[in-house]
Amino acid sequence: MRLAVRKTYKLYLGGAFPRSESGRCYPVTSSDGEHLANASLASRKDARDAVMAARKAFGGWSSRTAYNRGQILYRVAEVLEGRRDQFAAGAERAQGLSRAAADQAVSAAIDRWVYYAGWTDKIAQVLGGANPVSGPYYNHSAPEPTGVVAVFAPRNAPLLGLTCVLAPVIASGNTAVVVASERAPLAAVDLAEVLATSDVPGGVVNLLTGRVPEIGPHLASHADVNALDLTGAGAMAAEFEKVAAATLTRVLRPGPGADGGEDVWLDPDPGTARMTPFLETKTVWHPIGV
Amino acid sequence: MIFDYAPAPESRSVVRLRENYDLFIDGEFTPGKDGDQMSTVNPADETELARFTVAGASDVDRAVAAARRAYDTVWSRMAGAERGKYLFRIARVIQERSRELAVLESLDNGKPIKETRDVDLPLVAAHFFYYAGWADKLAHAGLGPDPRPLGVAAQVIPWNFPLLMLAWKVAPALATGNTVVLKPAETTPLTALVFAQICQEADLPPGVVNIVTGAGETGRALVEHPGADKVAFTGSTEVGRQIARSVAGSDKRLTLELGGKGANIVYDDAAVDQAVEGVVSGIFFNQGHVCCAGSRLLVQESIADELLPRLKDRIAKLRLGDPLDKNTDIGAINSAAQLRRIRELTDSGAEEGVERWSPSCDLPPSGYWFAPTVLTGVSQAHRVAREEIFGPVLSVLTFRTPEEAVTKANNTPYGLSAGVWTEKGSRMLWTAERLRAGVIWSNTFNKFDPTSPFGGYKESGYGREGGRHGLEAYLG
After folding, report:
1. At B80, is the secondary structure helix, strand, or coil?
2. Which of B119, B452, B460, B472 is the best substitution to test chain A (most A C-beta atoms within 10 A)?
3. Which residue of A has its CA nearest to B237?
4. Residue B237 contacts A, CB cutoff 8 Å
5. What is the interface pTM, i.e. ipTM, of the complex?
6. Residue B65: which domain range?
7. Is residue B451 part of a domain?
8. Can B291 be counted among the known catalytic residues?
9. Tens of pLDDT along B320-357?
10. Do B340 and B419 have their domain in common?
């Protein structure tokens, strides 16, 4: 009888997997209360480090070609597909899903990465274009990523929900600081390992596990965070939006059903709705003449 | 050769001012419940132009209720093509009455008639004309197959382009099927009140447009009103923050168009004459009361010694004075309060050691005036390089490399506009790509068009006005 090697679940910051600088962790249990593992309990300092890593990565990621970002997001889907059994088994344990439901959620997550991989080089054409101004000027508008986005991941859909909110943020060139589902954070850490081995540059996605009321206020008020996705912020959402007003941070409010399970995330064609809140429109003018 | 311009004043006779202006609610002019009034003065000579009503909370209630009724019973049910025809009709009346509106705007705001006549009013009419055409084509705007209006829009606008900002707010809101309650600025309410008359003249259904006048308290009552589904604000970043805080946690949609500290980058290969013209119009257009003004000149060090004397020569030829004179380039500062702010910030530059220059320039004896001013020796830490002055004051900084230009340009919490002057296309595009601002003018500055989206990055606000993008703010 061989003794299994257990995994230490850590944070994912700037491409590395550190423990919380606070040295703290918290127990993660399955839906029926069985102990699964300990997760890092991220601190304010970890949140700030995550924002710093995301800012550092923004210049490089946003100036990659859209084609290259698409290649990398597709690679995420490939690597995830290779590990689908691991994620399905994890969902069974953590959420108490049937194997069939777990398989469905993992398949949808993989397909969602493919979906957004395809959006990277189309979003600018769909949202931008020429403006027929009344005068001899070339005038053109195009979307650009807003910068660093703090994402509060859905609380009851640890893999699929996280994928559905994270992929659209980074597809357009933003970098992200993600607060994983507090109750079921292990799938997020497993996904970070997929990202780390899929050519996603370090710092593009930074993952914090811990308590939304503890970490959230520091992300919401951070002057170097450009936007918030409050989908998983729960009762704290209004407070975070209020705090974010001080630096005019863009806010995506939690929509209806944000607290639902995997089933609310199954729509295979979510469109541009989760990309546009994290885009800016830049308009460039130039005179026409000889 | 020394020569003078003979006065060439535009006639005031085209404007018929009333002594008192009521609120415009539910299609009618109606007195405020509390009877409070304020007066608006001509900033060029400090004479009172008219008195107007300060709307209290109960007046705002009435206006929002009228807008809701009009939304539920008429406007949201009307075929888009018919809504559009009302807007086309309004555009036409504005064109017909454009000289009257231009003169009135210059009287109330202090900006030169040359600008109200040739910039503000043509853009106002064009904006209504542009959005009129969208009213029956919303399904083709890329916002879903059946985009729906939001309801009642609460709109608060500033004093720097009073009627143009009204057009930017009202035209897209109405085209998309929303009804509006709009508050103009307390120093420039008059053209909005004439616009109310134009709505009557166009037989716009009562309650579709409501105009409530007043100051900050009225604005607060409006944007915090629980009956508003949408808040749109143009003004200072400070007030924008307060509004963002007040709508947090509600279902209200919000767009904000706030301050700026635009950089105008002049590379060493720029066409210098054009660049000088662009820098001048970038900061002195509308007395610098422009959120997207090019208030920071970033000039490449190697040509600074050539550019600055030519810039000063050109500035010395600007004519400051009577806003109604057709030759005037720089009019009056809009209010005593704004003049104080400009003086305070400009003086802070002198205290911090920057060099201050203005051409010799006679200021009229009464009214609010500030001579065009250039500040040199400015560093990024100086207040005049960081804070929005919102007046005819240009801060000059230098750079050596394109990377340094971009870094300095982006070194601000704002992100509304920027200018790039170079004859090299690849350098222009390289720079434009890296500037974190919503509007980039290359080899031009301060150009506006109803089809062209306008709005900022970062603390310059969020959302876009103009173009197809401008529809998104009013559709769900």
Report:
1. helix
2. B452
3. A248
4. yes
5. 0.96
6. 20-258+458-474
7. no
8. yes
9. 999 999 999 999 999 999 999 999 999 999 999 999 99
10. yes
